[in-house]
Amino acid sequence: MAQRIGWRLVIAIFLIAAAQLQSATARSISEPGATQQQQQEEGWAALKTDDGILFIWNVKDVHFSLAIKGKEIKPLGDPDHIFFSVDGVVVQVQMAAISEFAKDAKERKLDDKAILAAHRDWESKFLEDLLKAKLTVRNFNVRLTNGADASLWQFDMPAATNSETSKQVYLTTVNHDYVLLLNLAVTNAISEADSRKFLLDTIATMKSSPETIDIQKVADSLRAGTRP
Known about the structure:
The protein is α+β, with helices and mostly antiparallel strands. Helix content is 26%, strand content 32%. The chain is built from 5 helices and 11 strands, in the order αββββββααββββαβα. Strands 4-5-6-10-9-8-7 form a 7-stranded antiparallel β-sheet, sandwiched between helices.
């Protein structure tokens, strides 16, 4: 529970000052030919590619990769939470255990749409309490290219926050016993429509693996000029 509370506090800071990028890095983005030990039993990594980074997640029984495209991508300054500056836009990648917001999901036999709705309501309620404002959440149910259900939802930032961020846009999908969340802040640097497109284009690159992804093998493949 302490880890989850920490994550939500980071979300709070992110919401209020998302446009203020930090110079410190959470974890360096590795070159494909890096000599450092890159194989991880549990954790995440980011490898440079010609058009951005390849983000790799190996935690518990969930293993996948995402291609995040951009000319300049930098991880932001928290080693325990995943935020990137992508061409000046703040992007978040996170996983939330379904047991945290829908403990009886299996007993009730909730489908993915119901799970995503429960996650959206849970997260937006927390944000309303945090921001002390009623949020008008717009929700769009979407079907991903792999046939999976996803939820695309957003809200306007309350004027009282005095943030350069005008909206928050979220894309969520179920992955095993978790919800994968991609989040992007709408600012003058990116429009609302482009924000939604970026998230949908990013999730479309997701490749799941039944076993731990060998990061060194992927790095070697990128160095050889082939995409894994």
